[in-house]
Amino acid sequence: MKIIETSRAPNPRRVRIFLAEKGIDMVYEQIDIMQEEQRLQHFTALNPLQRVPVLVLDDGTSLCETIAICRYFEALQPEPSLFGASPMEKAVIEMWNRRMELNLFFHIAQYFRHLNPNMAHLEVPQVAEWGEANKPRAMDGMKLLDAQLAANAFVAGDKYSVADITALVAIDFLKPAGLEQPPGLNNLARWYGEISARPSAKA
User: Which CA distances in Å does 14 have to 11, 41, 46, 67, 99?
Assistant: First the structure.
């Protein structure tokens, strides 16, 4: 079993943090997406969408998409639970993870992909106006997160979950994207300091 990834990309980092929280060791194989190695025939055979990460099982089966890979490992090793245990926990974590994906991570990534000149050969066409349109949406996503953290220790409540992983990676992606947090988000700052201090954050 191995994971094919690009270590600097944000989605592979979500999986690495998840596995670190689980205490699961993994073999990693690197490809360079900036050199377009994801377009090579052998990788395209594993993932026709040509994206990382890809989990390759011992029988050759490939699993793609970050959350699908995390769910596979959650099923293999349920504890510590990162997707929730009770029906309500599972639903709330799913809700907040999707909110972090769609209302924060996505907008930061779109800003980066459409405005960073180094991404021009991967994002065809780059649309600067679309990139700029995502900036206020990303700011709103951070305000949503800050409001949620006013009454909660973690993104989805009182337990660390996959929603915290998605949010952490999104916030860390602000710097390479060239964005900054809006001022005054003290709840987010408190949470970010605590989450960043976890050993898994360095995965």
Answer: 5, 26, 20, 9, 16
Band (pLDDT 50/70/90 cuts) for residue 123 is very high
Torsion of CA 45, 170, 17, 203, to 10 degrees: 100
Q: What's the CATH number for 87-202?
A: 1.20.1050.10
* Global model pTM greater than 0.90: yes
Tell the CATH superfamily of the 2-76 domain. Answer: Glutaredoxin (3.40.30.10)
Mean residue pLDDT across the chain: 98
pLDDT at residue 6 in the model:
98
| Dihedral of alpha carbons 37, 43, 48, 49, sign | negative
Rounded CA-CA distance 201/21 in Å is 9
Domains of the chain, residue spans: 2-76, 87-202
How confident is the model at residue 101, as a pLDDT?
98
Neighbours of 44 (CB within 10 A): 12
